[in-house]
Amino acid sequence: MTNPSTPSNPSTPILVTGGTGTLGGHVVPLLTAAGHRVRILSRRPRAAADDGTEYVTGDLLTGAGVADAVAGVHTVLHLAGGPKRDDEATRTLVRAAARAGVRHLVYVSVVGADTVPLAWLRTKLESERAITESGIGWTVLRAAQFHELTLTMVEKMARLPVLPVPGGLRLQPVAAREVAARLADLALAAPSGRVPDITGPEVHGLAALVEAHRDVHGRRRRPKLPVRMPGRAGRAYRSGTNLTVSGALVAKTTWAEFLAESVARGAGR
Ligand SMILES: NC(=O)c1ccc[n+]([C@@H]2O[C@H](COP(=O)([O-])OP(=O)(O)OC[C@H]3O[C@@H](n4cnc5c(N)ncnc54)[C@H](OP(=O)(O)O)[C@@H]3O)[C@@H](O)[C@H]2O)c1
């Protein structure tokens, strides 16, 4: 058994849950480029990749395949997530990891997990708890909303004839590529505990994000309709508790740069 404070040995596979997702798609090549073996847990059967990446078929919500996924692993980079039940999925992973003698759990959570009262964010906070109380060495990084997810949201809004603008809602979007680089560094180091949040370089209101998207596609701006977000979550967003305004690691790629890149790739219409 290796010492918990030592980083993963390159010949021991690093398990990446969510390795097939947006964030995982950026992290996995960084780990393999650093000379590490990577194993990915996915719900769909997949053939091993040319770069040696291996796949284990399984599901964190049913528990199928999870014991096989963690077998012989020193470090788990837990990126799998969905709209619901991330807490259950994380607890299943943690139980299997503890049984298998995993030494380092790295988890990506979301900025505002403890301050914005949304059911989905509660599952992220519960996931953090499962990790920090696991008895295994751990690292938790909270990230702001990715530019990629922001783009999906903005594309839908940009098509509306009138733009609904929730008063006071601001975002600090960050490129998944930069979050991935930070996570790869953390996964290859010893457990670090809760590390500073990672955010994008700018804070934008929703209307500004949509208008920048319309501008980059040469579309006319639309009339705006102010709307009020109801309830406690609305109050939390209006008071900016979904933002990390101090102490964060601030990534470089701006929303405008990300949009320009996505246009150059032919994405984000
Ligand atoms: N998107 C954001 O703005 C944002 C911001 C901060 C933090 N995060 C967190 O970052 C993580 C990755 O986000 P993402 O945007 O890259 O996600 P994504 O593109 O939606 O990908 C989700 C990944 O989770 C895996 N997955 C989902 N349910 C699973 C299950 N039951 N068992 C095993 N694997 C499962 C999927 O694998 P298969 O489909 O191959 O099974 C897929 O690889 C999530 O935990 C998310 O909460 C996201």
UniProtKB/TrEMBL annotation:
InterPro entries: Ergot_Alk_Oxidoreductase, NAD(P)-bd_dom, NAD(P)-bd_dom_sf. Residues 18-148 form the NAD(P)-binding domain. This is NAD(P)-binding oxidoreductase. It comes from Streptomyces parvulus.
